[in-house]
Write a structure and sequence with these properties.
It contains 3 helices and 3 strands. By secondary structure, it is of the alpha+beta class. Strands 1-3-2 form a 3-stranded antiparallel beta sheet.
């Protein structure tokens, strides 16, 4: 997303392809951009954590967060939250 400057679940391939190396049976992601701090991102993306957790059948046991800055983009910072079993 940071490379292209766009917020999209298909940036860099689909979610299943991106998380395949995790070797989990189920995974979900939440994405966002424009939140400059971890706490700001967590407030916003955290609102969507429950639906994502439920999308992995309530068996979510792992979560990971990543951010990448792109000062050339109007968003300036991109975030991904991945939840897996």
């Amino acid at each position: 997303m940071a490379s292209s400057g766009t917020v999209s679940h298909s940036a860099g391939g689909n979610c299943a392809t991106r998380v395949a190396s995790l070797r989990k049976s189920r995974a979900a992601e939440n994405i966002g951009a424009g939140y400059l701090s971890f706490s700001e991102m967590l407030k916003q993306l955290g609102r969507f954590f429950r639906p994502s957790r439920e999308s992995v059948d309530g068996g979510a046991r792992h979560a990971g967060v990543a951010s990448v800055a792109n000062p050339e983009s109007p968003y300036r910072k991109f975030w991904a939250l991945v939840i897996a079993d």
